[in-house]
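for the recovery benchmark. tokens below, seq after
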């Protein structure tokens, strides 16, 4: 899902060496990226996050969808 060359860390730093762009995100976003690097599907990621955090399902889905959209807009995901 996420491109193999994208560098990240547990603090939410995201770096695209192909473009030189860098981004800051929060700890949950860093966790999502880590799960993507493990080739987890969005459905699996939603389930794992919902089980781990106390959050309404609709809120989680909306936030995750917005985050994935941002990753796509910044060319950080495989097609």
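predicted aa per position
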């Amino acid at each position: 899902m996420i491109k193999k060359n994208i560098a990240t860390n547990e603090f939410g730093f995201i770096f695209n060496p192909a473009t030189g762009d860098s981004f800051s995100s929060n700890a949950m976003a860093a966790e999502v990226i880590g799960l993507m690097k493990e080739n987890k599907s969005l459905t699996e990621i939603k389930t794992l996050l919902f089980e781990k955090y106390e959050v309404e399902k609709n809120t989680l889905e909306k936030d995750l969808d917005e985050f994935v959209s941002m990753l796509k807009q910044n060319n950080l995901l495989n097609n």
